[in-house]
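pasting for ref
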Amino acid sequence: MSFELTEHDHVHHVINNDPATRNSLSPEFIMAFRAYLEELTPQTSPSAIILGGAGGYFCSGGNVSGLKQRSEGDYELRRSNVDRLHGMIRAMRACPCPIIAALEGGAAGAGFAMALACDLIVSSPDAYGSVAYIKIGLTPDGGTTSFLAESMPRWLAMELMLTGDRISMERLHQLGVVNMLVPPDKVLTSAQDVAQKLSHGPRTAAMNGKRLLAQALTSPLDEQLNHEAHHVAEALGHQEGREGISAFLEKRRPNFKGRQS
């Protein structure tokens, strides 16, 4: 199976290990990654998840040979395969903890969508993303249109969708879509550094902050203000909040370990 999971110091590392296909999104990987994510709860989730691909390439998207086979099926079969992918994307967005993409080489099609579904992206300037569907006569899936509309001007998103041309991670970094650019041989270690930094922070506050940002995309301002008021009132009474405030007033580094209950 191409899905591989390792754990170190409250950080999980998920690898799509199928370099022969440039880590295409096989049904096995999609189902395994979704099942893993859906088992996580605020109490059991790691501080962060690093998502990457084997062999120096993030993900080539859907396997075109598999797409050929599915194109010959009926609508229900064709739709079921897309729904399987979308179940994984929904699980990523609902994951309690941050997911960090360690994006090496490139991300195409649904692989680009999977990268954009992550909460943070660490990459190198020479890596690229591609909304390649148009080149084989298809429209985007995996939440691509939603993520593009959220993250960049409409005209650029339209260009990427209509041409299928590559966009460099350097340009995406300039747009604020990529968080960190590092040399190609430093992508994974830099993502690990980010994950370790998060692991020393207030986990409950981070989870609730992720939830608030997700709600902000669809909530009217008045409703979002109520969400924020609820969470900050909860945080003020939480062990994390008490430790953070005390540390600030005492001019010391806060110790959030063991204060997530």
